């Protein structure tokens, strides 16, 4: 039946005032309905008249549902549900427009260093071409003036296209991955009948049917059902199953999109779809905002500006110096040059000055960064880190805080039996469980397994990834997994021992009971009394079930009556487990006769005279490697904070087990949110656990940390983690257990869901930052020496010519730089990287120790090169006036200069004061290969370069001498490192990030607090004893 009225009414609805009518036709707007679930607002639902008024306002009857022909006018011009969808939208998210390759290329080109390089290359190209074809070009020499400018442009293009194509392919692959998600079907009521339709065809007002194992696709309000429980951990972080019920009965009527039905069945009315739903709004929020510049990008931009300014300054100084020199020389000459000669000389001087700018620009720097990131991301994939955003890799290297979700990230999001005492045999962790089986008698073991399997409403099913899992209550699933770990045939046991009576779990009795008829031929042996025909299995809250027990099973498998001590032992065990935030379940049974069985009614089981089999502790356990990862972070100066939707007792216990909660502060989201901003910031400084948090709380913590100067990494797997993952400097999502929202929001996906993989990401991030710094140390040394040599030799030369030719500088500045970038960028990370604190985001890219090495090496190399220019002819017994010997001298200076760089590259493997620069050198095969390639290349250029490179072959003595001089870079590096730093302020030497409150200070404050509490308890005891003594004395005096 249609709910749109008669045809004439329908026509008026679809007329000119359709837009106005659609907002009036339904009693509620999409925004108002969406506010019911984000956050859950039962008071607002009551104000709106409850589910009944919601149904009326959406024009739907719960028994009939929507009509399939709603909105049709017989002309085929309208689609079904046209008006409804126009008002509330469809259950699809708008497709994100993919960036074109051209726009990605343009974005990649917005790097200041690349722009500076482009300007320098164009100037170099123009000057080079004009020189090649000018009258001043020597006859017989090749026209290679264009090569340097063209080569720099090629390097810029390579960097831009590499980055753009990489981003384009990653986005394409990610879209392809998302497109593979199959369109699933859901059950609902339409036209009074159950139907299956595509999840994308659900409308607001549809009556949806919920079954165990189903992932809810839309938001809704519970109407009716039986024992419906949902897992909202991926949406809200709440690890406990939430039972749904009618608003009038005080239940939770809100069913969130993204949650999973664990058990029971239900019927709900859909109130939000697509972008208006809880899941949809989270997904849409992730699409807003662009990526901010990373710390390394900001530092590189600043460096590019500084280099440009210094290059221009050096160029101007050279220009002024050469012009003054020219006119002084000209005025001292016998005849002053004519105008044409002056113009030609000025052009030559301007070209020399412009060359200085080109030499000063570190053309290999963007390539070094690109290569370091590309190599790191490739290797990180082997460590199960899929990097979606390239820059996230280097950002992670400077991370100072990791804000992690608990459920599914630190823990396995799977309730598991972790401790227990069954038949008086104890197991204290999961590794001891197999040992427990071998210690208990077979008959009692069979009874325990029978009780776990039969007395359960959980069943085997498929999860969203198609894996076979148990579906139902998390507690029951944990017990079934416990039984399955011993190889118990779950299906066989259930078919052999079918319950004759079942009393499902009820909150009033806090237990579940099943009665089976004993079958002598089946697995129901182990009766403990003659004539027993039935067995009752009970499980539930430990205090309740234990109170109904009169006996317990001892280590030999015999039933022993409870006495005061034995009962106290069980009660102490329950208290002990509770202090560890374990959910305790007591297992019990009783064999009985037919007469006793007849006394049981269908409403409530008569729980008395039970035999206690034991107690197990259930918990969502930590993932393997979490404790080690937290400790590694602590050693590396990175503070881990747990932000979860779980309760504070469980969260604090898990945080203590993981090593996160040590002297810091634990609080809840509502308490934190209620504080003024200045108090929130004070709490964040010491915060280690935030429980009962909402998505807004997570983003608030991340925001406060970022405002305090911290670089924040956020980990999560649920829909509720999306906004914080997006806002963080680096977002990590789980590749296996993570929702699509979490993956979409993250920069790095952990393919193995292992928290320990984040430590590997930290190591690679620090390695990338170190690689860029190593290259900078090497590159700037080369550039400073090249600029000073070009400047000085041109000023001292009669022809205003540099000692190094343009093609020689091309080899030094471009080919060697690119190869050096590859060599230094492929240094694998070592464990030493985790033994230091993170670098402050405000620290300079080139620190004091680097400047010390750059300046020290530059001074040494300049002295060596200038000495060769001035006294080289005498040292090598060459004739200064012989053109052939002049070329030999140029070649000697060039060869020495290159080998100074080759040995200095080894020196640049360390950017601290570590003396052993050869440490782990054989672990970097690429470095060794490139060094060999450069040496072979240099030999080829010198011996066979001839006219193109302006070189001439050297003899063995000249080779040994120049290589030996070049090797002096290593001992000079050692001497520079040994220069004491005692006169340098600590603020310059120490570039570590300094947290507002250190870990040591928090531990000290916590210890003082613990002592104060103990002293208070001692004082209270003294006061109590004094009062009691005074009362005794008073009574004694009255008796006398």
From TrEMBL:
Residues 8-21 have a biased composition (Basic and acidic residues). PROSITE patterns: ATPASE_E1_E2 (PS00154). One of its GO terms (cellular component) is plasma membrane. It catalyses: Ca(2+)(in) + ATP + H2O = Ca(2+)(out) + ADP + phosphate + H(+). It is a multi-pass membrane protein. The keyword Protein biosynthesis does not apply. SUPFAM superfamilies: Calcium ATPase, transduction domain A, Calcium ATPase, transmembrane domain M, HAD-like, Metal cation-transporting ATPase, ATP-binding domain N. Its main location: membrane. Residues 51-124 form the Cation-transporting P-type ATPase N-terminal domain. The chain crosses the membrane at residues 113-129, 149-166, 307-329, 846-867, 887-906, 927-950, 956-979. This is Calcium-transporting ATPase. It is found in: Endomembrane system; Membrane. Residues 1-21 are annotated as: Disordered. InterPro entries: ATPase_P-typ_cation-transptr_C (IPR006068), ATPase_P-typ_cation-transptr_N (IPR004014), ATPase_P-typ_cyto_dom_N (IPR023299), ATPase_P-typ_P_site (IPR018303), ATPase_P-typ_TM_dom_sf (IPR023298), ATPase_P-typ_transduc_dom_A_sf (IPR008250), ATPase_P-type_domA (IPR059000), HAD-like_sf (IPR036412). One of its GO terms (molecular function) is metal ion binding. Catalyzes the hydrolysis of ATP coupled with the transport of calcium. Its EC number is 7.2.2.10. The keyword Methyltransferase does not apply. GO terms for biological process: intracellular calcium ion homeostasis. Residues 182-284 form the P-type ATPase A domain. It is an enzyme of class 7 (translocase). Belongs to the cation transport ATPase (P-type) (TC 3.A.3) family. Residues 802-979 form the Cation-transporting P-type ATPase C-terminal domain.
């Amino acid at each position: 039946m249609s709910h749109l009225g008669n045809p004439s009414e329908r026509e008026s609805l679809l007329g000119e005032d359709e837009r106005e009518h659609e907002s009036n036709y339904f009693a509620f707007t999409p925004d108002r309905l969406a506010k019911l679930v984000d956050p859950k607002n039962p008071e607002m639902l009551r104000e709106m008249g409850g589910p009944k008024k919601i149904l009326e306002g959406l024009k739907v009857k719960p028994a009939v549902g929507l009509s399939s022909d709603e909105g049709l006018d017989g002309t085929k011009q309208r689609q079904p549900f046209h008006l409804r969808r126009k008002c509330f939208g469809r259950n699809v998210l708008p497709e994100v427009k993919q960036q074109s390759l051209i726009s990605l290329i343009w974005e990649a080109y917005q790097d200041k260093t690349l722009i500076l390089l482009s300007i320098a290359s164009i100037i170099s190209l123009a000057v080079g071409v004009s020189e090649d074809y000018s009258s001043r070009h020597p006859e017989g020499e090749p026209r290679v003036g264009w090569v340097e400018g063209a080569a720099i442009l090629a390097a810029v293009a390579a960097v831009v296209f590499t980055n753009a194509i990489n981003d384009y392919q990653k986005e394409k692959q990610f879209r392809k991955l998302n497109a593979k998600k199959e369109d699933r079907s859901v059950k609902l009521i339409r036209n009074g009948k159950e139907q299956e339709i595509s999840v994308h065809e659900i409308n607001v007002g549809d009556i949806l049917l919920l079954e165990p194992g189903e992932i809810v696709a839309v938001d809704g309000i519970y109407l009716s059902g039986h024992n419906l429980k949902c897992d909202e951990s991926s949406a809200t972080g709440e690890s406990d199953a939430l039972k749904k019920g009618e608003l009038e009965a005080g239940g939770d009527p809100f069913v969130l999109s993204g949650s999973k039905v664990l058990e029971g069945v239900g019927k709900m009315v859909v109130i939000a779809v697509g972008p208006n739903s809880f899941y949809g709004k989270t997904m849409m929020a992730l699409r807003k905002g662009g990526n901010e510049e990373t710390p390394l990008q900001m530092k590189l931009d600043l460096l590019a500006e500084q280099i440009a300014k210094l290059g221009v300054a050096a160029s101007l100084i050279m220009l002024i110096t050469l012009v003054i020199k020219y006119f002084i020389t000209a005025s001292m000459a016998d005849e002053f040059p004519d105008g044409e000669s002056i113009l030609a000389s000025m052009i030559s001087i301007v070209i020399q000055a412009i060359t200085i700018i080109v030499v000063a620009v570190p053309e290999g720097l963007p390539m070094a960064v690109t290569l370091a990131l590309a190599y790191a991301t490739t290797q990180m994939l082997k460590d199960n880190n899929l990097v979606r955003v390239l820059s996230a890799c280097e950002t992670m290297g400077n991370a100072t805080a990791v804000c992690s979700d608990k459920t599914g990230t630190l823990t396995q999001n799977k309730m598991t039996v972790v401790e227990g005492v069954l038949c008086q045999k104890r197991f204290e962790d999961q590794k001891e469980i197999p040992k427990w089986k071998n210690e208990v008698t077979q008959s009692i073991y069979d009874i325990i397994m029978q009780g776990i399997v039969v007395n359960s409403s959980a069943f085997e099913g498929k999860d969203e990834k198609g894996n076979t899992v148990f579906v139902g209550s998390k507690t029951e699933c944990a017990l079934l997994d416990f039984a399955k770990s011993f190889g118990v045939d779950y299906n066989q046991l259930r078919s052999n021992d079918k319950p004759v009576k079942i009393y499902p779990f009820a909150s009033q009795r806090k237990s579940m009971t099943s009665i089976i008829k004993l079958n002598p031929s089946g697995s129901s042996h182990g009766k403990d009394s003659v004539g027993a025909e039935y067995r009752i299995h009970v499980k539930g809250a430990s205090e309740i079930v234990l109170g109904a027990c009169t006996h317990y099973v001892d280590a030999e498998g015999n039933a022993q009556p409870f006495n005061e001590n034995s009962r106290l032992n069980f009660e102490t065990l329950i208290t002990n487990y509770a202090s560890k935030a374990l959910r305790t379940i007591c297992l019990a049974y009783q064999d009985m006769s037919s007469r006793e069985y007849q006394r049981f009614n269908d409403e409530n089981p008569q729980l008395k005279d039970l035999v206690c089999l034991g107690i197990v502790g259930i918990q969502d356990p930590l993932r393997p490697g979490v404790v080690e990862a937290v400790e590694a972070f602590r050693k590396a100066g990175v503070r881990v904070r747990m932000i979860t939707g779980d309760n504070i007792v469980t969260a604090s216990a898990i945080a203590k087990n993981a090593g996160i909660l040590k002297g810091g502060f634990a609080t809840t989201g509502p308490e934190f949110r209620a504080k003024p901003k200045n108090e929130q910031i004070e709490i964040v400084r010491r915060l280690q656990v935030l429980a009962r948090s909402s998505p807004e709380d997570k983003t608030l913590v991340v925001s406060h940390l970022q405002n305090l100067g911290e670089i924040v990494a956020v980990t999560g797997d649920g829909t509720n983690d999306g906004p914080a993952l997006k806002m963080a400097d680096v977002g990590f999502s789980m590749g296996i257990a993570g929702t699509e929202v979490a993956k979409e929001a993250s920069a790095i996906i952990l393919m193995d869901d292992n928290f320990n993989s984040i430590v590997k990401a930290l190591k690679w991030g620090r390695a990338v930052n170190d690689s860029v710094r190593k290259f900078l140390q090497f590159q700037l040394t080369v550039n400073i020496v090249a600029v000073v040599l070009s400047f000085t030799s041109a000023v001292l030369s009669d022809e205003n010519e540099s000692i190094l030719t343009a093609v020689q500088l091309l080899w030094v500045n471009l080919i060697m730089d690119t190869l050096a970038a590859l060599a230094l960028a492929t240094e694998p990370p070592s464990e030493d990287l985790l033994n230091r604190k993170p670098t402050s985001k405000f620290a300079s890219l080139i620190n004091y120790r680097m400047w010390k090495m750059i300046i020290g090496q530059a001074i040494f190399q300049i002295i060596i090169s200038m000495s060769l220019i001035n006294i080289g002819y005498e040292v090598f017994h060459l004739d200064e006036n012989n053109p052939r010997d002049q070329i030999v001298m140029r070649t000697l200076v060039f060869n020495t200069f290159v080998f100074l760089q080759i040995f200095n590259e080894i020196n640049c493997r360390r950017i601290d004061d570590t003396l052993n620069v050869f440490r782990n050198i054989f672990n970097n095969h690429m470095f060794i290969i490139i060094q060999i390639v450069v040496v072979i290349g240099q030999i080829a250029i010198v011996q066979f370069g001839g006219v193109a490179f302006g070189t001439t072959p050297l003899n063995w003595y000249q080779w040994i001498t120049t290589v030996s001089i070049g090797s002096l870079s290593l001992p000079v590096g050692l001497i520079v490192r040994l220069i004491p730093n005692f006169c340098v302020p600590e603020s310059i030497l120490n570039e570590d990030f300094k947290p507002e409150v250190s870990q040591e200070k928090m531990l000290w404050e916590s210890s003082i607090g613990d002592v104060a509490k103990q002293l208070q308890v001692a004082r209270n005891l003294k006061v109590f004893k004094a009062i009691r003594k005074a009362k005794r004395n008073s009574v004694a005096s009255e008796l006398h």
